[in-house]
């Protein structure tokens, strides 16, 4: 009986140690909207970011029959978005400094693509929400930027098409942020 228990335990441990199938991953490479001209000259600010999404995956693929698979990014979403916003603001003439009393804080509230597909067709719906807070000792401005996309196609959705929709939605949000005259005016006057 003891030998049987040991054999069963070893079999169970071997099954747990065997490699699990990898979760699919896509590239997340947001493109900053760079300013052709500077609006300020080396005005400093500190840049912070946090990811407050309830889950770290960026897509849910529903193939039917209660088969839903999460998809993650190869890159860290928070760091990638912070880098893109950094590039946008420095192209406008702002300068990042850890000692600045002015801060720009990013909060990634939502970034998700729902994919429904079968062998013959796919439908993707993407949503993104990023909250930006520009704060000075005299006050703060809070703005929320949203992006949406919807795409349908023939056949099942590929990783590349999911990746493209994710990056497109993020780039729309970044473009809106970069071209926000109210935000630029606030930072120009108060920073």
UniProtKB/TrEMBL annotation:
<keyword id="KW-0732">Signal</keyword>
<dbReference type="InterPro" id="IPR005619">
    <property type="entry name" value="Uncharacterised_YajG"/>
</dbReference>
<feature type="signal peptide">
    <location>
        <begin position="1"/>
        <end position="19"/>
    </location>
</feature>
<protein>
    <recommendedName>
        <fullName>Lipoprotein</fullName>
    </recommendedName>
</protein>
<dbReference type="Pfam" id="PF03923">
    <property type="entry name" value="Lipoprotein_16"/>
</dbReference>
